[in-house]
Amino acid sequence: MARWFRLENALALLLVFVPITIALKFVFGVVGTPIFVCAGIAIIPLAGYMGRATERLAEHVGAGLGGLLNATFGNAAELIIAGFALQAGLQGVVKASLTGSIIGNILLVFGMGALLGGIRHPVQRFNRTAATLGTTLLVLSVIGLVIPAIFHAVAEVSPGTEFTLSRNIAIVLMATYVLSLVFSLRTHSHLYLGGDSEAPADGSSAKAALILLVASAAVVGLMSEMLVGSVEAAAEDLGMSEVFVGVILVALVGNAAEHSTVVLMAIKNKMDLAVNIAIGSSMQIALFVAPLLVFLSYFVGPAPMDLVFTPFEVVAVGLSVGIMTLISLDGESHWMEGVQLLAVYVMLAMGFWFLPA
Amino acid sequence: MARWFRLENALALLLVFVPITIALKFVFGVVGTPIFVCAGIAIIPLAGYMGRATERLAEHVGAGLGGLLNATFGNAAELIIAGFALQAGLQGVVKASLTGSIIGNILLVFGMGALLGGIRHPVQRFNRTAATLGTTLLVLSVIGLVIPAIFHAVAEVSPGTEFTLSRNIAIVLMATYVLSLVFSLRTHSHLYLGGDSEAPADGSSAKAALILLVASAAVVGLMSEMLVGSVEAAAEDLGMSEVFVGVILVALVGNAAEHSTVVLMAIKNKMDLAVNIAIGSSMQIALFVAPLLVFLSYFVGPAPMDLVFTPFEVVAVGLSVGIMTLISLDGESHWMEGVQLLAVYVMLAMGFWFLPA
Amino acid sequence: MARWFRLENALALLLVFVPITIALKFVFGVVGTPIFVCAGIAIIPLAGYMGRATERLAEHVGAGLGGLLNATFGNAAELIIAGFALQAGLQGVVKASLTGSIIGNILLVFGMGALLGGIRHPVQRFNRTAATLGTTLLVLSVIGLVIPAIFHAVAEVSPGTEFTLSRNIAIVLMATYVLSLVFSLRTHSHLYLGGDSEAPADGSSAKAALILLVASAAVVGLMSEMLVGSVEAAAEDLGMSEVFVGVILVALVGNAAEHSTVVLMAIKNKMDLAVNIAIGSSMQIALFVAPLLVFLSYFVGPAPMDLVFTPFEVVAVGLSVGIMTLISLDGESHWMEGVQLLAVYVMLAMGFWFLPA
Q1: Which residue in C326, C328, C333, C348 has the most chain B C-beta atoms within 10 A of its own C-beta, making it the best mutation to test that interface?
Q2: Does C181 touch chain A (CB under 8 A)?
Q3: Closest approach of chain A CAs to the CA of B271, in angstroms?
Q4: Spatial separation of the C-alpha atoms in residues C326 and C329, rounded to whole Å
Q5: Chains that contact C by 3+ CB pairs under 8 Å?
Q6: Cα–Cα distances in Å, from A36 out to A233, A249, A312, B92, B219?
Q7: What share of residues in chain C are helix, strand, coil (percent, to 5)?
Q8: DSSP string covering C152-164, please?
Q9: Euclidean distance between CA atoms C30 and A105, whole angstroms
């Protein structure tokens, strides 16, 4: 534990980037890459605080609802960033960051958890039924992405048809998500509780955690607006495509909370919580955040957004969900499974790197 | 049970559409949409009778052979309809109705069964080995569809080559089907018996059931010819593509028998029978009916039929089989799995709806 | 056992093709198809000897390392053949033989093993965790093949970019392979030992086996050079595309060792060994031999080789790995699973047959 608290202290130092970013922008009038980098770094500890605040709230409600809470507020950072990108008309970046969050949570975040947890524990076990429900919902969302992409590729239809199809699919995904909450919180909540519930809360009250959560979210919002405002300039400066920036960098920043929580839980051998957060977070991005952004796009930003992702994005999500499904089927993980997930992440990142802008 | 008998009585009322259809066509000379609608409605109770007759026959032979019998005669309606469409040269409709039957039986029929059964029973169990054999055979048939489609997409070959390839693949699929019968009825029949065999037959003899079956099939044939003869006019009137009519409407009519049987069995918690019928029916369409129609096309109808399905049809079948495989792997189902299968069905139906004619 | 020793004696007779090939080429100056056929036949018993020598070595080290040894030296023949093809600039044949080896080992070799073993034993069991690790690594390698293929299809990038991407992916695949050896031989070797270790060695020493292995490899090298030198002429004479020759014929010759060993083990109901060899061999081709050939291509042969396989090759490998994964998930096999794997092999072979050159 001691090592992790030290890591937290180190992360707390990154908070200094909040005033730095503000000063750079509003005092010195700096734009572009420096703002992008500083705002991105500033979000990392904030997302971390949102994660810890959520973890404390979760300690009051058990592993199942706790995992859900963790995923929700981890994804609040995502939603805030994507919302600002939508408003700025950067739909390519929005879709790239959604793609990056879905594949990042299962490949990078859970991969790292399974690797580091697996080094300490030869075999780690988790509830198969809950994991399978999560991966099946991910498969469902892949189907929701494949349909508009195939449509776009093979059918000569008007953009209007693609928007209508996307919106209808978004409704189905959102409805499925709501029903999955009924399943996991009501009718089959026993699958998500029990197992590895946390030790008693460390003294801090639910109220203090809630205040921390709300305050962090507000600052994340401020930083996100600056991050998004500088993404185009930064991509050009860094010689990366906007898609790479969205899939890898933005998603990395947005998933920092899940990342530290999942690794911590995996090392503590609380794999049910680790799996719930990682798969649950990807699933929530796909079934809740993505449809929500489609709906929001009719009110925020210059134009409505469809669900037509690029072929490479669709394939990346499909392959990631496929290998995660396979790995979680037996309800066990070991370090080599972590290696495999990370290897897929690296290969996909290389693909996005070389993809022309 | 009482509620279901009432449902059956309601269905029996639909039989009035048999004389109505005949009268409309031969007395009043009506053509097009009214004939399509009336013939379609008339087939529903008839397919239901074929289902019940088969169910009674099945009661004499146990769950395994019973499931097979159910699937066979449920698919007799499909085969009759598709045969008339083939004769009329409507190969697009034939392929669409095959696609619709394969995805309809696993997504709509089993999805509805798992949902309604799952509302009464928190977890429903079935024999994993038998289910896995069925889904693996479905994967095999998907491979049989993917090969000609990829060929058509990437290789510049003559139509003659595509026919030869399709016929050879049809032979492999049919041979695999025959061997799977040897497996399920001879060498490993114990996997299909036992479990949830029905209560003793309700007094009606096997002979009476057989007569009902044959009589229903004959009337289904008559109605099918009229249904197929009006499909083009109906599609135009209703503003739907022929493919949508084939995938959704014709398949719905053809699968009515499986639909009511599977839902009834699922509610009674006889999941082995429900799974055998749903998966078995899809599998039989893919491995037996589709190849048989390819062979028949050399004798019936204006031109031979290949196995080149449209990209969206291939993807739809592939995705449906994929999610069904995943859901059946653990030998358990719950209501949320039903929701997921239905959600995929709705999304695919929306895709077929918006697909240009 | 007696029957198999007789088969071995019959195979030994094929050794006569070694001097025949040499005489045809160097004494009578024959080229083309006769050399291709004779060299191919000569490799079969040699690969068989390499297999038996390896099996004997394996008897000294247990099932896990033994399976690995078997796969390594079975694939030595592959590597030797592919290396000569690379040197001759026949990159299409190299890729085709890699494709053919990957699909051949899981579909043809394991399919035949499961069928013949399953006829004697109603259900055969093997270690799920080891099999799943193997198939997951195969899925990983499929991802490694899909990325450059998608890239080639959708992104307009320079060939230079494709080479760089391929080389980077090759590094990831190779690194994953090395780590998988650490897993299977060090940290989790207990998963691979135990179970069905062989009977005590039949008297022959490890040293004699090693000498047999090295001598066989040398002659395989000589025959491979002649085989590769005549592949173009033979393809034209036989009316086959080079790809078909590579995927089916060359791969068949190269996998003869695994083929006889896997079938023998399956009949003896030593399924852990059979599965380890079949899946391990495919996996090693994909994660070790393919990357190694990419690296070698910078030193051997006229031009570097990328990992851009043809769409049909990528789909064939993807489908084969998919159905093998599904079949091995439950840790059991029966004869019908063998039939299904063989049916997929036949359908894919038909596809490669009709594919234009």
Answers
A1: C326
A2: no
A3: 18
A4: 5
A5: A, B
A6: 9, 10, 25, 53, 72
A7: 80, 0, 20
A8: HHH----HHHHHH
A9: 61
Cβ contacts (< 8 Å) between B241 and chain A: which residues? Answer: none
| Residue type for position B241 | S
| In the block, residue with structure tokens 């949902």 | B115
Cα→Cα distances A89→A84, A85, A138, A245, Å: 9, 6, 27, 16
Q: What is the DSSP letter of B333?
A: E
Q: Name the one residue in this structure whose structure tokens are 């050159």.
A: C357
- Under 8 Å between Cβ of A108 and A322: no
Counted residue by residue, chain C has a size of: 357
Beta strands in chain B (DSSP E): 124-125, 332-333
Give kind and range of the element (H or E) at residue C124. strand C124-125
**Single pTM value for the model:** 0.90
Give φ, ψ of B60 to 5 degrees: -85, -10
Pairing state between β C332-333 and A124-125: unpaired
What contacts 24+ positions apart, CB below 8 Å, involve A209-213? A209/A53, A209/A54, A209/A56, A209/A57, A210/A53, A210/A57, A212/A49, A212/A50, A212/A52, A212/A53, A213/A49, A213/A50, A213/A53, A213/A54, A213/A57, A213/A73
Give strand pairing partners of A332.
A125
> Judged by CB atoms within 8 Å, which residues 257-316 of B form the interface with C?
none
Q: What is the mean pLDDT of residues B255-272?
A: 85
**pLDDT given for residue B198 in this prediction:** 46
The pLDDT tens digits of the residues spanning C143-183 come to 998 998 888 888 777 878 889 999 999 999 999 998 988 88
Please state, in angstroms and rounded to a whole number, the distance separating the CA atoms of residues B299 and B305. Answer: 11
Q: 10 Å Cβ neighbour count for B7?
A: 14
Distances (CA, A) of B311 to A150, A200, B85, B352: 8, 55, 21, 12
The DSSP code for B311 is: H
Which residues in chain C touch residue A326, judged by CB atoms under 8 angstroms apart? 132, 135-136, 139, 325
* Contacting residues for B243 by C-beta, under 8 A, at least 6 apart: B92, B93, B96, B310, B313, B352, B355, B357
Q: A53 in contact with C at a CB cutoff of 8 Å?
A: no
Q: Which of B264, B348, B293, B352 lies closest to B94, judged by CA?
A: B293
Rounded-to-10 torsion of CA B335, A262, A65, A86:
-80
Q: Chain A residue with minimal CA distance to C159?
A: A354
- Which chain B residue has the Cα nearest residue C320? B143
C137, C147, C189: best to mutate for the A interface, most A CBs within 10 A = C147
ipTM over 0.95: no
In the block, which residue shows the tokens 């000897």?
C49
Each residue's pLDDT tens digit, B19-58: 999 999 999 988 889 999 999 999 888 877 877 787 788 7
